[in-house]
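Below is a complete specimen:
___
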Amino acid sequence: MKTKLLQGLLIGLVLFVASCQKDGVAPDIKVINKIEINGEKLPLNAAGFVDYSLKSFYGTAPTHKNVDLYTINGSFTTNKTGNLLDINGKTAVYVELNSPNLDYLEPGTYTYINSSEDNGLSNADLNVKYAGKYFISNGYVINSTESPSLLTYSENIGVSSGTVKVSGTKPNFLISYDLVLQNGQTLKGNYAGIFQNL
């Protein structure tokens, strides 16, 4: 009897751990649904993604899956077809992620790559710079106390370096930020949950 009970508990534990990993929530990360910018803690309550499908960073064929992620404190304003028009609220973090897996946004660590000088590079140089890389091509944060229309009227501070870790699969992601902004401030934190298709 004890053996069957122990076997049942062991099977239940294995299924629980597998379901946590399947849902994309890494068991070693404490989910806080907040970001911290130079000591100021800002809550996040919603998230969304825009799937731009495929993008080419070198050559003529598609090289990366391109997906924009938003984590916010507020709500999304969309048109009748669900496309993003604006963000109403106080805080928004935006990152444009590029995965070399052309089928989906693959879990992993995405590192910021500055693409501002790409026009002067040869195709061979671009291949070395981007081939097989998981990277952030753009990103910014908005923290506004004045305007609730974050995309329309608020100024953003761009990302200059750092990483974003992604686990899970669309639409259920865990996103962890470790970024440096263009003003020298750091942005850290994470968000886990369902990301709205925008």
